[in-house]
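Chain A, query sequence.
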Amino acid sequence: MSESVHRVLAGAVVMAMLIAGCDSTNEVASTTTTQTPTSTQAPTTTQVPATTQVVTTPPAASTEAVADSVAAKEGCEVTPAGPLLDARSPARPYFLHHPTEASTDTATIMFLPGGSTGSRNAAERVWANYLSQGEGVDDFRVVIPYATGFDLYDDEERVLAIVEEVLACHGGDPSQFHIAGYSRGGQIAFGLMLRQPDLFATALGAPGEFFLVEPDRWREDLAGKAFFNGVGSEDEEWLPFVKAIHEGLVEAGVESVYVEFPGEGHRLSSEFDESIFFDFWSSH
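Chain A, predicted structure.
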């Protein structure tokens, strides 16, 4: 199913529930934790084009330098810290970025790309415009799944297999595994959090949304979790739905941050300062 069809269906359901009038336990509450950026989101450094961010064949010397910090197990690959690499382990394809200093306490971010299939190009855009220049990126292990020749989002089992593989091969703190995404990737990230809350510490959408506003279910299944609901101030289609999801989470007693990115549309530009994402992950 195309992304546009998903958006139409999601929009119809959310707006119907908001207008039709649910009972007092299901109404979306007004924003109580709305947060605005403390800056205009202008970057302090110039973005490097996505095509220069990916290294598919790491130098042998770099691999040796970090071999002690990455567990080499059967079926796993020892890869260096720093560049964005194409994983060559069984659950591939996905991009992988290791922190400068890995440890058993390392947190992991899985960021799902948008678009109709979650393509390699969309994954490269995630790295270039959503992650690579953010202050704190080198403190995290970053995983960006993508698809080749099929729809990534019709294969949830493979996404979950990547979670298992990354933790098994490279370690880190399993209680600090964060799920994120933008557009359709944000929808899938929120859905995975709802279906597998024990696997993820937080969920971030930039933007993202659930297909249904279900405060009662969220109250039970998402207790103790935290959400980041971000959307471009110029994204007229998604903004009302993202805000409604935030308000529903707040009503359900779930921690949620709502941020409008000044001057940004549906896809974040190269001028966006991704540090706001890492501030959220670092604080959780």
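The longest helix spans residues 3-20. Residues 29 and 92 are 41 Å apart (CA to CA).
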